[in-house]
Specification:
The protein is built from 13 helices and 16 strands. It is an alpha+beta fold. The chain has two domains: 201 residues, no CATH class; 102 residues, no CATH class. It has an eight-stranded mixed beta sheet, with helices on both faces. Strands 7-6-14-13 form a four-stranded antiparallel beta sheet, with no helix packed on it.
C-alpha cells in the first residue's frame, strides 16, 4: 500500500488526464451530488455531506473538509457506460442505395473517480448482461476506475447485507481511503499500479494502514439499513400471490424512479424513426422500466396490468430470478431506490414484512 498527500491526489488526476482519459467524478449540481465531467480536485464536493432517508435527499456543509465525505447521489457509472439514449444504427437512402452510418465516436476513454464499492460491484453485475453489446463493451473495457472505501454510508445504504461493501474489493484499478493527512492507495490492476508509480507517493505507515482499516470498520458499523438475504429468492417465489403486493400498489406511483437510479437495472426499449422524406432512419435504444404499463404490451395481450404485479416483477427479479439468470443478485445495497422513491417505499422493510409473514393471504393479481 502507498500513501499520497492532497497534492499527490491532484497529481493522480493530472496523470489520468495526461493519459487521455476524460475524468468523471462527483460534483454538486443543483443541490445534488452527481457524476459529471471534472477537470480536477477543485471540482469535487469538498466539505459537502448528504442527508438521505426514504424519499428524502439533501446536501449540507460538513466541517471536516473531506473530498469524499458523502455516500453517493442518484448517479452511477451506468449512465456513462450504458447511456439512457443511444443511437445504435442510422441509415440514409440515396436513390435505391442504403448506407449504414456508423455510431458516433465515444470520445476519450473514461476514468471514474470516487465510485463506492457498491457501484463497482454494480458494473460487474451489468457486465454479465451487457458485455455482448458493442457500445457498452467498447466503453467498459477502455474505462479506468478509482474506487473509494466508504467512510460515511447513507441512511438508506445496506451494502454490508449484500456483501458488496463498504470496502472496495473488486472492480477497481486503484482504490483509496481518505485519511486526515491524505489518501491510502491500493492497487487492483497492473494498469493501476503503473498509474500510481507515475505520481509521488511513499510506502504507507503502519498507523495509516490501521487508520484506513478503522474507517471501513466504522462504515460497516454505521450502515443505515439491514437486510436478511438468506433464502430471499425462495421466499419471494413462495409469496408471488401475497396480498402485500396490493398494499405496495396503493403507494407505488409506477414512476420508474427506482429503476432509473438503480445501478444494475438494464431494461430498454428500441425506437425506430424516419424523416418525412423517407431518406433517413435511426434506431435508438432507450432506458425502459418494468413499472411502465407499456413495458407489459405483447402481441397476445397485456401482462402485468396492475402496479401490484409490476412491483412484484421488479422486486422478485431483482432479488430472486436474477440469480437464476445471471448467477448473482441484482441488488448491490446502494439504497438509491429507497432515497429516490417519491413516496419513500423501502425495499428492506417490504422484504422484512414478507419474511415476517405479513400479507401472506393469496390474491388474484
Amino acid at each position: 500500500m502507498r500513501f499520497i498527500d492532497r497534492a499527490g491526489f491532484d497529481g493522480l488526476l493530472a496523470e489520468l488526464r495526461a493519459r487521455g482519459y476524460r475524468l468523471i467524478g462527483p460534483a454538486v449540481r443543483d443541490g445534488v451530488i452527481v457524476l459529471d465531467e471534472i477537470d480536477g480536485a477543485i471540482d469535487l464536493p469538498v466539505g459537502v455531506h448528504e442527508e438521505q432517508e426514504a424519499g428524502r435527499y439533501r446536501t449540507e456543509p460538513a466541517g471536516a473538509g473531506r473530498i469524499f465525505g458523502f455516500a453517493h447521489g442518484p448517479d452511477s457509472a451506468k449512465r456513462f457506460l450504458f447511456p439512457a439514449r443511444e443511437v445504435t444504427q442510422a441509415t440514409t437512402r440515396t436513390g435505391r442505395s442504403l448506407t449504414v452510418v456508423p455510431p458516433e465516436d465515444d470520445g476519450p476513454p473514461l476514468a471514474f473517480v470516487g465510485l463506492r464499492s457498491c457501484d463497482l460491484h454494480a458494473v460487474l453485475v451489468q457486465d454479465r448482461v451487457l458485455m455482448p453489446d458493442p457500445g457498452y463493451r467498447r466503453r467498459r473495457t477502455a474505462a479506468f476506475f478509482v474506487g473509494v472505501n466508504c467512510a460515511e454510508p447513507g441512511a438508506t445504504c445496506f451494502c454490508v447485507s449484500t456483501g458488496t461493501g463498504p470496502r472496495c474489493t473488486v472492480g477497481f484499478d486503484l482504490a483509496l481511503t481518505e485519511l486526515d493527512g491524505g489518501f491510502l492507495m491500493e492497487t487492483g490492476t497492473p494498469l493501476g499500479g503503473d498509474v500510481l508509480a507515475a505520481i509521488p507517493s511513499r510506502p504507507a505507515a503502519e498507523a495509516e494502514v490501521a487508520e484506513a482499516a478503522a474507517v471501513s470498520k466504522g462504515a460497516e458499523a454505521s450502515m443505515g439499513r439491514r437486510l436478511e438475504t438468506d433464502g430471499l429468492r425462495e421466499l419471494l417465489y413462495r409469496n408471488r400471490t401475497a396480498s402485500r403486493w396490493a398494499s405496495l400498489a396503493e403507494r407505488c406511483l409506477a414512476c420508474g424512479n427506482c429503476t432509473a437510479v438503480c445501478p444494475t437495472c438494464f431494461c430498454t426499449d428500441v425506437v425506430d424513426t424516419a424523416d418525412l422524406t423517407g431518406k433517413a432512419a435511426t434506431r435508438t435504444r432507450e432506458w425502459a422500466s418494468c413499472f411502465s404499463a407499456e413495458f407489459g404490451h405483447t402481441a397476445g395481450g397485456d401482462v402485468r396490468t396492475g402496479r401490484d404485479a409490476r412491483y412484484r416483477q421488479w422486486l422478485t427479479h431483482k432479488f430472486g430470478s436474477w440469480i437464476d439468470q445471471f448467477g448473482t443478485s441484482g441488488c448491490v445495497g446502494c439504497g438509491r431506490c429507497i432515497t429516490w422513491c417519491p413516496v419513500g417505499i423501502d425495499v428492506t422493510k417490504e422484504l422484512a414484512a414478507i419474511r415476517a409473514g405479513e400479507g401472506l393471504a393469496e390474491v388474484g393479481s
